[in-house]
Amino acid sequence: MRILPALAIASLLSSTAIPLAAEAAQCSSGWAGTIQYTRNEANSAAKTEQRVTGKGTETSNWSMTYDYAAQVSVRPAPEADYSLGKANISLTSVSTETKSAQDRYICPHERTPRSMSGSFISKTETRGNGAGLEANVHVGVDSDGTYRVSVGLPDIQGTVSGSNSSSYSGQCTPKQGVNQSIADMPTTINGYTFSSSGADRVSKSSPDQLAGSHSVSAYGVTETLRWSLRRCGGDLRLVDVKFEDMRFPTWEAWQEIVEQRGTTDGNIVRITALVANDGPEEKSATIKFRETYKGDKWDGAKPDGLIEELTVNVPAGEQREVAFKWDSSGYAWYDDGRPRLIQRIRTEVEDAGKKVDDKTYNLKVAPKPVVLVHGLWSNWQAWEVWQNILTTSHSYDWKAFPVGQKPEHGRMSTGEQLGNTEPTNTIAQNAVELGQYVKYAQQDRNAWHVDLVAHSMGGLISRRYIHATMPTYPDGKPQVAHLVMLGTPNMGSRCADIISAPLETAGRSMDALRELRPSVVAQFNAVHTERKGVEFSILAGNPLPAICYMFNENDGVVTVPSATWAITDAEQQSVLHINMATAEVFSSFVKPRVAIGPAKQKPIELSALAAGAFGLDAAAQTDAFTPDFSKIVKLAPGQTLKIDIPVKQARDFGMTFIAASTVSASVIDDNGAVVGESLKDTPAASQLFRSIYAERAVAEGTWTLSLRNDDQAEREVVLSTWSRRD
């Protein structure tokens, strides 16, 4: 019984190969290897018709799938120039027809029509299998180097089974549905003959190896032939090497890696080699997987490195798989920081210590995605140029994910823009949004691990996420490989103290600002101690002297001790707080910490921060602070406002305020001398916290603050003064 008619092929099969062109011929034996043939069909039809009563409809749906597969093991005939084939064949075909009818009818002794329905399902299934069956194989090579591969498959035995079911509702006389099964019936499933196009050409450099595929589709049927053949080789042969990674977020959900897509740094890759034994006796094969640099521009002379070595026994005429799991961590980079665009892996098969076959495959490994976490009075646009930075540093496969760029995946609220004192999220709430964005980045890049680069308060948000909700995976590695912090106030900022105080007094507490106060951060540090194996790094800016009642070197917001805190990998640069998300900082500080090759990958060590380990300046940073004077004012467009400032006898004088860059401020002492200025549209006007500082003795009196708004919109100014009187 033939299930479907075969597609026409160009010629009948022969048992004798046409010799290869004389100048390329290497031997005259038959071919060995594998040929795969598949035949697939999927059809469906649907229609709806009016019933003869004209008061209802009848709907029919039909679908059919047909899947035929044959794996042919090809061996050279003894002392002859042709090949023999043994086939393993399987078939599954399912046909299903569903009919449903709806009608309206007035039953006897009733006055109104009622709805009636019926449903009928008929299913037919054909299955068949055959193993070790003789198959005709022909490999013909023409004098011009073109060749054709053909296969003729035998009939196999199978069974046909089926079922019928029906159900009814609404009938005048209730009708019972039925369920019937049709017992298995034997059937013969005809074999197929199929040939490649004849357009494939033998490689002059490898005339004794053939590999390729050919597919034809017509009338809803697709036939495909794939082959991997060689001649005059040893008994053992490497058929194929397959690379797979796991589809995030399901561990062990293995999927084959598409060469153009590749995998992502840190993913576990399962490498599977398929080895065939074309000889008459069982063989023990040694399979070696090597990292090879052959063909690399810089390291082409570097010797290969052994990744894994496995052994497998392969019975005569059969194939066996061997697999291992390879950690790709670091393989997007060389150890000197250069981008590694392609990882070359060579698989070798040895027979009794002698290499008999090998294949080299290219595996693209993209760097881990970089999730970018903004800080106070900021948004995702602070990182807008970073995708270009990553692209030029590696390739377009290195992706930046600024939190909030696609708000449907997570959006933090930290004040949005400079000087905004509206309510915000807490650090804990923003950490939830960060977690959602990390997951989005993983799904987008199929990456099990990411790097975080966090500016300012973004570092505290990241630390909260790592401590509270970040997962670890069965590979023992944390989700976040590295947290790189830029100017994070790990012990808080006095600037937050100075500006938050007048807001809290006015009943306008802003969580994002309040949670940066040193006393609040001290409580945060006492709780958030878990690093879970994540490596921490911090860049501290040190270009400025005293600011915000802080007298250590600082970046305009955060002092060096507050940033470096209890973090071993700490570095200082002469960079302002607002200039940290730049290409210069990326090159000098961020890239060396995330562009790490395999030899420099650190072993995973789950670690925790000791509660209270806040550094020597902790007491000075967490004592209570009260401004000398504070005020909140609003300036109309073009308005100039003068404010009296009471000044106490002290060692110095400082004023810190937040305002739009269009606002100018000048402090004048009681003798009419200008103590200091912060003028509109200057570099100082773009700082998060603007300060005017006089490092000289001050007598008690009244000074004047002059504010001017050159914007076309009303602007608010929040200010506090401070001094040292000890």
Overall geometry comes to flat
What portion of residues belong to β-strands? 35-45%
What is the CATH class designation of the largest domain?
Alpha Beta
Count of strand segments: 35
**What is the fold-level CATH name, i.e. the topology of the largest domain?**
Rossmann fold
Looking at CATH, the homologous superfamily of the largest domain is Alpha/Beta hydrolase fold, catalytic domain
Query: What is the number of domains?
Result: 4
Number of helices: 9
Description:
With 726 residues, this protein is mainly β. Helix content is 12%, strand content 42%. It folds into four domains: 32-230, no CATH class; 236-366, Immunoglobulins (Immunoglobulin-like, Sandwich); 370-622, 3-Layer(aba) Sandwich (Rossmann fold); 629-722, Jelly Rolls (Sandwich), CATH 2.60.120.380. Strands 1, 2, 3, 4, 5, 6, 7, 8, 9, 10 and 11 form an eleven-stranded antiparallel beta sheet that branches. A six-stranded parallel beta sheet has the order 23-22-24-25-26-27, sandwiched between helices. The longest helix is centred in the middle third of the chain and has 19 residues, at 427-445. Residues 1-25 and 610-621 have low confidence and may be disordered.
